Amino acid sequence: MSKTKSFAESVDLAIQGIISAFKAERNFRLDILFAGIVILCGILLNLTRIEIAILFFVITLVLFTELFNTAIEKLLDIVNDKFDPKIKFIKDVSAGAVLITVIASVAIGYLVFYPHLDLPFRVTLRTLRSIPYHLIVGGIILVIISVIVIKSLVGDKFLRGGIVSGHSAVAFSLAVAIVYLSNSLVISILGVILALMVAQSRVEGKIHSLKEVIFGSFLGIIVMLTIFKLLLK
Questions:
Q1: Which sequence spans correspond to the domains of the chain?
Q2: From CA 11, how far away is CA 107, in angstroms rounded?
Q3: How far is residue 20 from each of residues 3, 94, 97, 160, measured CA to CA in Å?
Q4: What is the DSSP string of 77-113?
Q5: For residue 151, which of 159, 162, 142 has the smallest C-alpha distance?
Q6: What secondary structure does DSSP assign to 115-144, as a single string?
Q7: d(Cα 165, Cα 213) in Å, to the nearest integer?
Q8: What is the distance between the alpha carbons of residues 42 and 48, in angstroms, rounded to a whole number?
Q9: Which H helix or E strand runs over 155?
Q10: What is the topology classification, in CATH, of domain 7-116?
């Protein structure tokens, strides 16, 4: 095989590498998903060109470190597929680089989005506060009933596994309730982060697949928001 490649061939190989990482690495797929959501939110909020450029730079940095970390792990697995403290050290440091870029990206994203979200958040919250508190409890109960009904229809287990994650559904319905009750963007963000941690724990514990967790999360959000929408009419 010739070592000299044309520019088009080099680009094609690079694209194949990205596609291979997307297919094989769940974390990279999640990074792509969150990147798309962030860019979409930036467009909807009419961010400035500089703010969009900052987001693109941060997203590129996260994706680059994720790809670099994956390449290092695969290379070390080829060198030695058995446990080696030195190899473990290299893998841990590489993963640490990814973690640092992710934390930095979250902090930068917060600084970019906060000025654009604070006022709309407060206006929306004043409208939502006209809803009686006890209806939030009713919404959570409705979420639980919806999960039980869905699992009954497909014959799934009620407490572990199944087509929909009940824990994720309840967690995200509570996150919506926290947004309603808190009157604070920061506390609301923390509520969403806690819900994400619950959902992530279901996947990490191999109790649910990513698809089942996403299904449950959207179920909780949709049910609670539907209650809000109906009551605002």
A1: 7-116, 129-233
A2: 32
A3: 21, 20, 21, 32
A4: HHH--S--HHHHHHHHHHHHHHHHHHHHHHHHHHHHH
A5: 162
A6: HHHHHHHHHHHHHHTTS-THHHHHHHHHHH
A7: 5
A8: 9
A9: none
A10: Helix Hairpins (1.10.287)
Asked if 152 and 94 count as a contact pair (C-beta separation under 8 A), the reply is no
C-beta separation of 181 from 172 below 8 A: no
pLDDT tens for the 233 residues of the chain, in order = 455 667 777 888 888 888 888 888 888 888 888 888 888 888 888 888 899 899 999 999 999 999 998 888 888 888 877 777 888 888 889 889 889 999 999 999 888 888 887 766 666 666 555 555 666 777 788 888 888 878 777 665 555 667 788 888 889 988 888 887 777 788 888 888 999 998 888 888 888 888 888 888 888 888 888 877 766 55
Residue 9's Cα: distance from chain center in Å?
34
Angstrom distances, CA of residue 123 to CA of 7, 118, 214: 52, 9, 28
